[in-house]
Amino acid sequence: MLPERIAKAVTVALENLGVCVACSEQAIEITAGEVKTQSGKIYPADLAVWTAGIKGADLLRNLDGLETNHINQLVVQPTLQTTRDPDIFALGDCSAFPSKGKQPPVPPAAQAAHQEASHLLGSMALRMRGRPIPPFRYRDFGSLVSLGEYSTIGSLMGFLSGKSYRVEGWFARLMYLSLYKMHLYALHGPIGVVLDTLARLLKRGTEPSVKLH
């Protein structure tokens, strides 16, 4: 879901920290002391953590005959209406937005879901009035990847130039924290932001430096 140059920059940062990044490797066996891959490589491991990508709930697979893809996401039209029932809309991680030509699919990210929700709010009103619904258009405002106390890397979209710019270091870290505080403000208001900040200051020695969700 990240731009290629950002993914490469994060990979370089991890390798500089001594992390071995093995892409396009499929694990076929995990034992008490190692991980074996399909290519024949063996990685010694005292602790193995298995993570998976985005997948829709099994409930969606047989939801009233609606079309789904291989990861249980509801296939939608450009208007966010499901392909088999125009009165049912889907957004966020449970929807599979079509891509045209070389255009990449809409990533399963928070900013995509937020934009889809805003679009859906107006679309439902138009649908109830019997008026045509405009297609959804995703705008990439940039991405930020936090590596805890080591670094923050990302890209920010320049609204005047229309191009994305790479940001790194303290400036990127400041942007990451600012976006997080804005998210808290939208959910819990100013009092919630203050209380969360105080709680994190008190728990700084015990909580992880990298967001784990």
How would you describe this protein?
- With 213 residues, the chain is α+β, with helices and mostly antiparallel strands.
- The protein folds into 2 domains: 4-51 and 141-203, no CATH class; 58-128, FAD/NAD(P)-binding domain (3-Layer(bba) Sandwich), CATH 3.50.50.
- 31% of the residues lie in helices and 18% in strands.
- The chain contains 3 helices and 10 strands.
- It has helices at residues 4-16, 110-128, 170-203; strands spanning 27-30, 34-37, 42-44, 74-75, 81-82, 85-89, 95-96, 142-146, 152-157, 164-168.
- The strands form 4 sheets. Strands 1-2-3 form a 3-stranded antiparallel beta sheet, with no helix packed on it.
- Strand 8 and strand 9 form a beta hairpin.
- The radius of gyration is 21 Å and the shape is globular.
- The model has no long low-confidence stretch (mean pLDDT 82).
Write the topology of this structure:
Blueprint: H1 4-16, E1 27-30, E2 34-37, E3 42-44, E4 74-75, E5 81-82, E6 85-89, E7 95-96, H2 110-128, E8 142-146, E9 152-157, E10 164-168, H3 170-203
Parallel strand pairs: 4-7
Antiparallel strand pairs: 1-2, 2-3, 5-6, 8-9, 9-10
Q: What structural class do helix, strand and pairing data support?
A: alpha+beta
User: Order of strands across the widest beta sheet?
Assistant: 1-2-3
Task: Note the total helix count.
Answer: 3
Order of H and E elements: HEEEEEEEHEEEH
Given the C-alpha coordinates, what overall shape results? globular
Share in β-strands: 15-25%
Q: How many beta-strand segments?
A: 10
In terms of quaternary structure, what is this?
single chain
What's the N-to-C terminus distance?
16 Å
Gyration radius, to the nearest Å?
21 Å
**Overall helicity:** 25-40%
For the sheet with most strands, the description reads: 3 strands, antiparallel
